[in-house]
Amino acid sequence: MRLTRAALTIAATALAPALLLTGPAFAAGNTAPSTTVSAAPAADGSGTPVGEMSDEELRIAILRILADEDSGKRVIREANEALDNGTTEAMQYFLETGYPLAQAEDDRVALVRILGNPDSGKRVIKEINQLLDSGTAQDIRQWLETGYRLAQAEDDRVALVRILARPDISEAMRAAVSKAIDGTPEEMRYFLEYGQYEVDA
């Protein structure tokens, strides 16, 4: 069942302190109106199908998911439950079905948290709304991994240009902003969060 945006917002607000945000992400891609989640690939790096893994290989695959700093709250909870259960069937079910479903839920909550961030700019907000309206689980994962960084960079560049347009801008600030605009997305973000307050300090 697909969650409404209001329900997602409520869930994100309630879970926000404990949730882990994924890293920067999404180049706007296919946004077909589907939330289909594909089965998780083998997580042991060998390409062995989950159904052919030994119990030890299943445990290692789940432990690798737990070790991933981008794993969200539901993924962590269900991975631990699968390990606590310890049966072959429970671990296989998690890797084949539970993991992609849990990842999809964690990713949607991450989107709502970003949407609720007052620092999120127009492109970030636009792309998140498109994803929440019609994005697949794969679209959302791709955005969080690559597109978020690109959208944030565009919004940050607009913010820097607005600083340049201020009539009272100092020469030191103008030079610092110009350097930031020519930098990487991470350098632009750093300047907006910290660097601009260090100019002329």
UniProtKB/TrEMBL annotation:
The lineage of its organism: Bacteria, Bacillati, Actinomycetota, Actinomycetes, Kitasatosporales. Keywords: Signal. InterPro entries: DUF312_ALF. It comes from the Bacteria. Residues 1-27 form the signal peptide. It comes from Streptomyces pulveraceus. This is ALF repeat-containing protein. It holds the Pfam family ALF.
